[in-house]
User: Fold these one by one.
Assistant:
Number 1:
Amino acid sequence: MGIEIERKFLVRGDAWRAQAHQVETMAQGYLNDLAAMEPVDGGDAAMKASVRVRIAGDAAFLNLKSRELGHTRQEFDYAIPVADARDLLVLCVGGRIEKRRHRIAAGAHEWEVDEFLGDNAGLVVAEIELGDANEAFERPEWLGAEVTHAIRYYNLALASRPYSQWTADERAGTAP
């Protein structure tokens, strides 16, 4: 079983752009939506994982990620033919997530800065994967507020309710 330990932050300014050493365009969608992740009538009858299809450059993947909120989740990622991914994207619910992923080295880690496009244009989020939940890491000067525990920043949530529909307080990061 794969375990992902990831922390997510807002990004301040554009200083990060000069540090990016690789950029990749991505399109992804979900075969289930955020509502499918919620328990029904207080029980546990909900799906327990998001199911994502992603095309990244010339590669495609099917990804399953457990529904836990926070920085640690189970994750399974499988390479699939790009033609299959295109067919699966047609079956996805909610909107398609389109973004450019910029990779930035910082200390012993690599940041992934996602610059969202389409209905999520204007949102820029940085993610770092860690080997341990308490692992120390270098915090670049362009790193803003941590949003690891805020569901609205999860790609699955952005497919259901994109950034273009957020209130001014949500966009500023001041809404709960």
Number 2:
Amino acid sequence: MTIHVSPEACPALVLNADFRPLSYYPLSLWSWQDAIKAVFLERVNIVSLYDTVIHSPSFEMRLPSVVSLKDYVKPARHPAFTRFNVFLRDRFQCQYCGSRDDLTFDHVIPRSKGGLTTWENVVAACAPCNLRKANRLPSEIKMFPHQAPFAPTVHDLHNNGRAFPPNHLHKSWLDYLYWDIELEP
């Protein structure tokens, strides 16, 4: 019997050489094809396997569900300033009203008044709040962000990312995720 495996099926959790995920949000995953390629190039160790087997005319292998890099990759010290990372820092909610719908971003000090597009001046905002605040200073309209904007560390973003787990977590991944969260009594 031949099993056809789609690229989305059976992703492999990718761990650094210290057995921590390379990234929590988005979770560091490779397609099964990329995982197999890394195995053959001897860049990773297989930590756990799926029951799914792939076949070629001369080869048979169970798909890896968890792989660890052989060489440690030093994590970035400073996260990239992106819209996604601003939303993640702000926990995907408007910093003015708390809504999670229709998010965009807002310059706390408007660009027209000298505000820069930086971590310290940009917050997640829903479209209605962004339109209402418009081109005004927070003090002019009495709209202040719940949390002052700041440049997050990679650790800050990882902590926030844990609150938004992916839709699918394979049971073989659970032993390698969230090692550094506080245990319940």
